[in-house]
Amino acid sequence: MSVNPRKILVTGGAGYIGSQTVRLLLAQGYDVAVVDDLSKGHRHNVPAGKLYELNLCNGSALSELMRQMRFDAVIHFAAFIAVGESMREPARYFGNNVVGSLSLLKAMAETGPRHIVFSSTAAVYGEPPESPIREDFPIRPVNPYGESKVMVETMLRWFDEIHHITSVCLRYFNASGADPEGRLGEEHEPETHLIPLVLRAVMTGEPITIFGQDYETPDGTCIRDYIHVDDLAQAHILALEYLIAGGESDQFNVGTGTGHTVMEVVRAVEEVTGKKVPYVIGPRRAGDSPALVAASNKLRTALGWKPQYADLRTIVDHAWKFARRGRR
Ligand code: UDP
Question: Are residues 96 and 80 in the same domain?
């Protein structure tokens, strides 16, 4: 990169996907500042000197930081992500995800940066009528988490119209894996995601519950599109470059386009670890769709994105490397 590297503000850069993106940005020569209140993220995920411990709702502190640092663009991850929790405590989700984003957009409108890459989700589609899911499918979230992301996507449209802030919304499918050396990975508390839970079952011997084996899928378990966190992080950088180069606001799915059943994940974990996965079959989990797979050609065509680690075994291998390092 040139003598004056681009300055990027990353909100939620201490979290799972944010920290991977910060790692790639730094490796590719960007100058990065992370804003994170550490309510979910981890200080150890952020390189020394890059963290500003701040809640996005603190608009005046955010504006001051933006005035000082004169960022070229923003990547916005900071959000709560647990669907189940959002069904119990919607106010927390609208408060943190929507109000926090509004505060960020207001600070952007006041202080300068004119591009934002937003961490959205396949949950905006709710229970789509068919799979693979295209970006032009109806937006019909079925929980406050998905709704909070739709509300931010809507705000982004108006901030472009009125303040000329261009945005890319990346609608993630199942983010998974860890960086290839297994240094940065999933550390959610509580953990609800399949791959870390299957790995935990292998390590502790405590069986994982598989949520339903009576779906209309080849082995009866749900199908998801597992996307390696490194490929997901790279999609953010491509989106950033696209916006900085003058690209128009747009929305893209981020998934590989290939689905795997829960049992396929279990088998992949057995192959990678060389151990039997203890599991029991439980009832279906409320709100689970039988199959969620991305149509991923829009991102590939428009931004030249190509997943490097699309193979499920590689995803599991990297997640296993991370899991074996243990919690810090
Ligand atoms: N799943 C499961 N047992 C678990 C956690 C997840 O069987 O303990 C299943 C879940 O029903 C879904 C898939 O694994 O079909 C992926 O779930 P996850 O929570 O990782 O992601 P989601 O698809 O809900 O975003």
Answer: yes
Domain of residue 251, residue span = 7-176+227-255
326: helix, strand or coil: coil
Q: Is the whole-model pTM more than 0.85?
A: yes
Mutate to test the pocket of ligand 1, among 224, 226, 289 (most ligand atoms within 8 A of CB): 224
**Amino acid letter, 78:** A
Same domain membership, residue 267 and residue 249: no
**pLDDT tens-digit series, residues 98-126:** 999 999 999 999 998 999 999 999 999 99
**High-pLDDT (> 90) share of the chain, %:** 88
Residue type, 82: A
Q: Is 30 a catalytic residue?
A: no
| Angle formed by the axes of helices 262-273 and 194-204, nearest 10° | 50
Q: How many other CB atoms are there within 10 angstroms of residue 133's CB atom?
A: 24
Q: Which of 169, 129, 176 is nearest to 148 (CA)?
A: 169
Ligand 1 atom nearest 193 alpha carbon: 20
pLDDT at 324 exceeding the cut of 70: yes
